[in-house]
Automatic annotation (TrEMBL):
Entry membrane topology: Multi-pass membrane protein
Pathway(s) it belongs to: Cell wall biogenesis; peptidoglycan biosynthesis
Transmembrane segments: 20-41, 76-94, 100-121, 133-151, 171-190, 202-222, 242-259, 266-285, 291-314, 341-360
Keyword Membrane among record annotations: yes
Compartments (UniProt record): Cell membrane; Membrane
Cofactor(s) needed: Mg(2+)
Species this protein is from: Acetobacter musti
Function: Catalyzes the initial step of the lipid cycle reactions in the biosynthesis of the cell wall peptidoglycan: transfers peptidoglycan precursor phospho-MurNAc-pentapeptide from UDP-MurNAc-pentapeptide onto the lipid carrier undecaprenyl phosphate, yielding undecaprenyl-pyrophosphoryl-MurNAc-pentapeptide, known as lipid I.
Protein name: Phospho-N-acetylmuramoyl-pentapeptide-transferase
Lineage: Bacteria, Pseudomonadati, Pseudomonadota, Alphaproteobacteria, Acetobacterales
Length: 363
C-alpha cells in the first residue's frame, strides 16, 4: 500500500520517499512494523485467548508426563498474533501489484484457516482430536496444488516446470506437468513439518525466523537479475518482493517469541505452525529453491522423518525406534530439560541456515 501510494503520488516531490523504491528499505520497514505490532498486541491477544479458552490447550495424555503439570492452562491459537502482524506489515510495505506476494499470502491465510479450525475443534471438544485427517489433508493439498499452479504460471517459461539443484549452476530437472504436484508436496509437507516441530516452548519459532531470514535474502537475490547473474542463480523476476514478506515474517516471529519463549505465555497452535510452514514452502517454490529449503529447514525435515520412521517401524515390529516421536520428545524421555533441547535445536537451525546461505556461492 505504501509502495503504490508513494511511487504514484509522492516520491517525485520529496527525495526521501525515493527510498520506498528499494526493496531493502521496505523489507526493513516490514520487519520493524511486524515486530512492533506483535509486541503491542501480544498481551491483549493473550488475555482475550485466556478469557475465551479458560482451561487452555488440551494436553495429550500420551505425551511427556510433565506437560500435563507444567503446560496445563496455557492458551493456544497464538498464531493469530503472528498472522495479524505478518499480513498487516506485508500489505503495508509490499508492492501489491506483485502476483508472487498474493500467492504466498493465499497459502499462508488458507493454511492458517485450516489450523484455526483444528485448534477450535480441539478446544470446543476438550480433547486433542481436531479436524479429521482426511479433511485437513484435502484442504492442505488442494490449497498447495492451486498455489503450485499459480506460481508456475508466473515464472519464466524456461524455468516454470524445472527443479533446480543447489551447488550446481546449470542442472535443471524438467518435471513437466508434474511440477504443480511437486510444489504441492513441498508446500503441504513443510506446513506439516513445522506443525510436528511445534511441541516445546519456542522450539519452532526460532527455526522459522532463521529460515525466513535466509529466504528473504534468497528472494532478493533471485529477483534481481544483476545479483542472480553474478551468483549464477536462476533469476525469477518479481520474487524480490517476497523479501518484504519474509522480513515481515522475521519481525512477526520475533515479536511472538517474546511471549512464546520458555516458559511460554501462549502456544502458536496449528493456526501458527501450519501457516508458517506453508508460507516457507510457497516462498521456496516461488524462488526455485525447494531443495535449499530442505537444508535450511533441515530440523523440520528430521522431526518429520522421526514420526514417519516411528510409525512405519512400530506397525511392522511393534517396537519403537525412538522413545517417543517427534524427535524432541525422544530427548525429553531421555531426561533432557526443555531449555536444553530448545536451545540446542536452535543452534542446529543456525548451522543449517548458514549451510543454506553457502549454496548461494558454492556452485
Amino acid at each position: 500500500m505504501l509502495y503504490s501510494l508513494v511511487t504514484h503520488h509522492v516520491h517525485g516531490h520529496i527525495s526521501f520517499f525515493n527510498l520506498f523504491r528499494y526493496i531493502t528499505f521496505r523489507a526493513g520497514g516490514a520487519c520493524l512494523t511486524a515486530l512492533v505490532i506483535a509486541l503491542v498486541l501480544g498481551n491483549p491477544v493473550i488475555r482475550e485467548l485466556k478469557r475465551i479458552q479458560r482451561e487452555g490447550q488440551p494436553i495429550r495424555s500420551l505425551g511427556p508426563e510433565r506437560h500435563i503439570l507444567e503446560k496445563a492452562g496455557t492458551p493456544t491459537m497464538g498464531g493469530i498474533l503472528i498472522l495479524i502482524a505478518l499480513f498487516a506489515s506485508t500489505l503495508l510495505w509490499a508492492d501489491l501489484q506483485d502476483g508472487f506476494v498474493w500467492a504466498v499470502l493465499f497459502v499462508t491465510g488458507s493454511f492458517g484457516a485450516v489450523g484455526f479450525a483444528d485448534d477450535y475443534l480441539k478446544l470446543s471438544r476438550r480433547n486433542t482430536d481436531g479436524v479429521s485427517k482426511t479433511a485437513r489433508l484435502t484442504a492442505e493439498f488442494g490449497t498447495s496444488l492451486i498455489a503450485g499452479w499459480w506460481l508456475q504460471h508466473m515464472m519464466p517459461p524456461d524455468l516454470s516446470n524445472q527443479l533446480a539443484f543447489p551447488f550446481v549452476k546449470d542442472l535443471l530437472l524438467p518435471l513437466g506437468f508434474a511440477y504443480p504436484i511437486f510444489a504441492m508436496i513441498t508446500i503441504a509437507g513443510f506446513g506439516n513439518a513445522v506443525n510436528f516441530t511445534d511441541g516445546l516452548d519456542g522450539l519452532a519459532t526460532v527455526p522459522v525466523v532463521i529460515a525466513a531470514f535466509v529466504f528473504a535474502l534468497i528472494s532478493y537475490l533471485v529477483g534481481n537479475h544483476v545479483f542472480a547473474d553474478y551468483l549464477q542463480l536462476h533469476a525469477v523476476p518479481g520474487t524480490g518482493e517476497l523479501a518484504v514478506f519474509c522480513a515481515a515474517l522475521v519481525g512477526a516471529g520475533l515479536g511472538f517469541l517474546w511471549f512464546n519463549a520458555p516458559p511460554a505465555a501462549v502456544f502458536m497452535g496449528d493456526t501458527g505452525s501450519l501457516s508458517l510452514g506453508g508460507a516457507l514452502g510457497a516462498v521456496a517454490v516461488a524462488v526455485k529453491h525447494e531443495l535449499v529449503l530442505c537444508i535450511v529447514g533441515g530440523l523440520f525435515v528430521v522431526e518429520t522423518l522421526s514420526v514417519i520412521i516411528q510409525v512405519f517401524w512400530y506397525k511392522r515390529t511393534k517396537k519403537r525406534v525412538f522413545l517417543m516421536a517427534p524427535l524432541h520428545h525422544h530427548f525429553e524421555k531421555k531426561g533432557w530439560q526443555e531449555p536444553k533441547i530448545v536451545i540446542r535445536f536452535w543452534i542446529v537451525s543456525v548451522v543449517l541456515g548458514l549451510c543454506g546461505l553457502a549454496t548461494l556461492k558454492l556452485r
